[in-house]
Amino acid sequence: MKRSISILLCLALALCLGAGAFASGEASGSGEATAAEPTYTALAEQYPDAAITLDGVAMGQVRRLVTTAAEAYDGGKPDETHTTGLGVTKDGGTTFITSTDDDTVGIAIRNTGAFVLGGGSDPALVAEKINFSYITSSYYPDWNAFCAALGYDASLSLEEIAQALVDSGSTARYTNLGLAVPDTVVLSDYVLDLAGIGTNDMGGFGAAVYVTDNAAAELNNFRVITRGPGRGTLFTRFGANVTVNGSTFYAVSDPDLMTMQGCPPGLFLEGKIRATNAVGASSVTYNDSVVISQGWGALSTDSDDLYTDWSNPTQLHINNSYIAVLTSGYGAYSDGGARDYFVGSVIDVPDYGAVETGMGIVSFEDCYLNVGEYGVMTHSGNSVGEIVFRNSRLHVGEAGVMLRDTANTVLFDHCTIAFDGTYTIDPTAAEVWGVDLADVDAQFGTVNGADPDYEHTVFSTGDSNCIVKLIHNSDSGSGSESSGKAPNVTIRDCVMAGDILNTAAMEGDEYTATSGPAGVGVRPARSLDVTLDGSVITGAISLGSDTWKVTHFASGDTASQEIGYAAATELGFFREGDKGLALTLENGAVWNVTETSYLTSLTIDGASSIPGASVTVDGVPTVLAAGTYTGEIVVAPGAAS
């Protein structure tokens, strides 16, 4: 971007924010003072959104969002009220905000004293971020003080400092350069009903509530309904910290509107709306609340183009809340290093209770999952995150955990599993958690509506119900393959009936999900390590091989996507090299074998058992004693008693 344009953009934002004096020459070192601050309306006319959005990313959009917000809070303080495309009324103690215009935002909350930077960013974006984060704020109205605090000479221009930061590869996080963050914005008793299209849900366009820049907010007794593709209810970014209490978020998406491309093909879902999205090391806590999405996702996290702080990743905390999707989609998404913690909550969705990828954590404690396919599904071969179930009840259609070529750590601790998950929400669970199903039906048109464009296809079907299954990824995925590292599964103090299978011990030669002939998506062979700790498991625990089939389904604007699924699984010694399945039984564990199973390692202590089974090791019949056995181990069920 040319320097003159960049300076003009920075000046526009400085005037827009207007917190403290700012000299136009400060960015260039001239020291000349600016004229009096114009109004937001004047700025909107002088600098239309398209001129300052900077490729639709980062800070230009924040000005755009705030200038279309009905209520705005900057640095913890009320800002001007803007009514472009919005209606605001008050009835007693409740505030109503409505809109039918695309991309309008009901409430915007930010802290302009916060500055975050990711290495490799566009210098123009960094300059704009620095500008309204410091120079325009009351924290550093003096250019010399700002430069001294940041460690640069005041003779440098704003653009030169931004370029230097990018060149250095800095990923530093600055929060008011040591100054206190402003107080939490507490808002109570709001009703927001916003229709229209949100053109960028990763940027927060069209989100009913937008919180950014280390701002802290508490939302009490909110009722938020958004109606349109890509139009989320709550968007957080850049270290924002938000607590939601006793609130209801509905994301309704008109299936006739096809402007949103829909879910990424690798998720094999349908839908046009993520009800919430948290990015950029933001943190959101939901207490006693309801989040329902028509299709795609209820609670989502995502990577961020300008700022990802791996030491302080994005976090979701869901306490005593009800999370649902009505047609096709997931309850939550842990992307990159995000952490999703569910406590005492219901996850009631047609496809995946949660999706995990990267180095994230998905944890369920004292939860009830009613899921049509998988409790948790992973994807992308570089996923090494944690999946935890404690004191939880899983009702799933296909598997408790489906590992798609990933190396996760999985723990079941005092849990139950049943393979009766439904493709529809559980009305009993909804009512117990205070969900008004009549209200859901009135807003969404149907409580359990099916998207006519969606063909319900899963990765693995038919021949077994799995507590855990490791399969090859059916798409090209992303990132490195974590060297074929073995995922580790521990089942502690559980009584479960279901299989545990590894069908990825041979090199995979599947195809990509979106296009391409067979053989494109080659995957490394993987082992699987399983420990039964004081648990009673009834089922097969075995190596196997999947027969892959090709199918097609509609996906958003794309008429059809080619995907693959495991239509049949055959158990046996399907493996390459030293890859296999290692099973450990300890602390009185019991494995009731229901189908001949194939292992490469078996460790058993004196208190554990495999009742009635016959065992061979490298073809030799073996009577098990405490110890470790390796080789080609076949465990066959005994005669039925």
Could you give the topology of this structure?
Layout: H1 3-17, H2 40-46, H3 49-52, H4 59-67, E1 69-74, E2 77-78, E3 86-91, E4 94-99, E5 105-110, E6 114-116, H5 123-135, H6 143-150, H7 158-167, E7 173-175, E8 185-195, E9 209-212, E10 216-227, E11 234-236, E12 241-245, E13 248-252, E14 273-279, E15 283-287, E16 290-293, E17 296-302, E18 315-319, E19 322-325, E20 329-334, E21 339-343, E22 346-349, E23 352-356, E24 361-365, E25 368-371, E26 374-378, E27 386-390, E28 393-396, E29 399-404, E30 409-413, E31 416-418, H8 427-432, H9 437-444, E32 466-471, E33 488-492, E34 495-497, E35 499-502, E36 508-510, E37 521-523, E38 528-533, E39 536-539, E40 541-555, E41 558-571, E42 581-586, E43 590-593, E44 597-604, E45 614-617, E46 620-622, E47 627-636
